[in-house]
Amino acid sequence: MKLLEGKKALVTGAGRGIGKAIALKLASEGAHVVCVSRTQENSDSVAAEIQAAGGSAQAQALDVSDSAAVDSLVGALVKELGGIDFLVNNAGVTRDGLLMRMSEADWDATLNTNLKGAFLMTKALTRMFLKQKSGAIINVASVIGLIGNAGQANYAASKAGLIGFTKSTAKEMASRGVRVNAIAPGFIQTDMTDALKDETKESILEQIPMGQFGTAQDIAEAAFFLCSPSARYITGQTLVVDGGMVM
Ligand code: NAI
């Protein structure tokens, strides 16, 4: 029997990159996965990939920063599935630029998806989690939330906020058997990082003791661990997965 057999997971930003890898991994370990991304097309394609591999999945389009849409989708899913065991708040965006030139729109777009999105998703499921008295929430933060980065004040603030949110919600839910942890990836090769200039990538590589970028699979393995019974006594933590970049 697979470790996550009979469990249900909801992964945001599951249409590609890290979220897709997490969705595939949790499904391969036996969980039924609700793949949520901004477009129905991307969600459908990941759910189809899971099903083709013999797993169980369904697909939804959702903007996690839209509170009405979050409430209505989460309400319908809880009714349909009877509960959710794992919530992975992975949806995230960057709108990089030096503070002097950063527009209010770039600040809002980043905070609204990365931080408010996790708040809305978690809040919509909190009553269910507390009644269920079990479950795990994983917030995908970033090492940038720990160390900051020139040109990413909005992103760093959103990810540092997510780590504080993780600790507070972990304290609120611990006595009901619900664990909340964050993962702080370093530099992971995805569409988000492919957009960076080659010289930026080279200078980041020099700061990674292991001498290589991470893969979405590396983050998926960490997410699986935090969902699994092996992590039953771990809550409120930030697991850094970065090849030694930040220590
Ligand atoms: P990506 O850009 O490849 O994928 C992001 C996903 O989030 C996409 O599927 C997109 O549709 C979805 N998304 C964005 N805004 C959304 C919204 N408002 N509602 C619903 N879905 C939305 O990015 P990647 O690299 O896979 O990143 C995933 C997470 O990991 C993000 O939170 C990112 O900040 C974080 N991260 C990534 C690192 C990297 O090196 N790639 C490093 C550290 C953290």
Could you characterize what this model shows?
The protein is α/β, with parallel strands linked by helices. Helix content is 48%, strand content 16%. The chain contains nine helices and seven strands; from the N terminus they run E-H-E-H-E-H-E-H-E-H-H-E-H-H-H-E. The chain has a seven-stranded parallel β-sheet with strand order 3-2-1-4-5-6-7, sandwiched between helices. Strand 4, helix 4 and strand 5 form a beta-alpha-beta unit. The longest helix has 29 residues.
Spatial separation of the terminal alpha carbons: 37 Å
**SSE order:** EHEHEHEHEHHEHHHE
* Overall strand count: 7
Going across the major beta sheet, what is the strand order? 3-2-1-4-5-6-7
- Please, what is the average pLDDT? 98
Can you tell me the residue ranges where pLDDT is under 50 for at least 5 consecutive residues? none
Class from helix and strand fractions: alpha/beta
